[in-house]
Amino acid sequence: MVASVQKDSVVTIPGHLAVIMDGNGRWARKKALPRQAGHRAGINPVRAIVEHCANLGVKHLTLFTFSSENWQRPGVEIRGLMSLFVEALNNQVDELDENGIQLSFMGEIHRLHPPLQEAIRAAETRTHNNVRMELILAVAYGGRGDLVNAARRLAREAAAGVIDPEEIDEVRYAEALQMARLPDVDLLIRTGGERRISNFLLWSLAYSELYFSDVLWPDFDVGELDQAFAFYESRQRRFGRTGEQVETAHC
């Protein structure tokens, strides 16, 4: 086991951490509980992880809360999730604001139930000026859809003569994505034992370190997060260069 990472011992932490919070349903099933109980239990680690990340100096924390594919789930589960989102937002926004956390959202927000859209707008407005850490919740989000929407936007601008198609490069394309104003993800954590990224932040994950935990999300705690940070600390991020080049640059 990797020892818990304390603030004063961390040399390198991710500036942008993304988490796929997987395993709520399986956690509930193991305990013979309804799936909604698993989703509710998944709120507790969110609070602990947000606090720990803010204390360690993570600047951006993006959580995958509901994917564009999750609309295929049973209607009763979707309705329960939407109600839980509203409840959690209303209950937690005061604490987030008091602790200097800015709350932002990405995804097809217009598809969400009106009460949730209203809660989202209120939370973003309330925490807009906070700078300690930004918490981004991806709701009704899909990476492929994000890429397609960016392509459509650029195609419309090119057809209108606003831009020259030859000017479209990686920088221009990235600016058309929902994550345009944020740095690329440094570390992705997925809980629940699956080893895939499930259509999450496809562009921003190009050079991310990937950490997969077998722990189901409701059981994921600060100690587990510290293990992920220790893994990240051990990695040499080369971005196409050789290891020798990286070492020389750090000398």
What does this structure look like?
The protein is globular and about 55 Å long. It has helices at residues 24-30, 35-41, 43-56, 75-98, 114-127, 143-159, 170-175, 222-234, 243-250, and strands spanning 16-20, 60-67, 101-106, 133-141, 187-190, 209-212. The relative contact order is 0.19. Helix 1 (24-30) packs across helix 2, helix 2 (35-41) runs parallel beside helix 4 and helix 4 runs parallel beside helix 5 (114-127). It is of the alpha/beta class and 251 residues long.
Total of DSSP H or I helical runs spanning 4+ residues: 9
Q: What series of H and E elements makes up the topology?
A: EHHHEHEHEHHEEHH
The level of helicity is 40-55%
- Note the gap between the termini: 31 Å
Key features of this structure:
251 residues, six-stranded parallel β-sheet, globular, alpha/beta, Undecaprenyl pyrophosphate synthetase, 6 strands
Secondary structure layout:
Elements: E1 16-20, H1 24-30, H2 35-41, H3 43-56, E2 60-67, H4 75-98, E3 101-106, H5 114-127, E4 133-141, H6 143-159, H7 170-175, E5 187-190, E6 209-212, H8 222-234, H9 243-250
Helix pairs in contact: 1-2, 2-4, 4-5
Sum this structure up briefly.
This protein has helices at residues 24-30, 35-41, 43-56, 75-98, 114-127, 143-159, 170-175, 222-234, 243-250, and strands at residues 16-20, 60-67, 101-106, 133-141, 187-190, 209-212. It is α/β, with parallel strands linked by helices and 251 residues long.
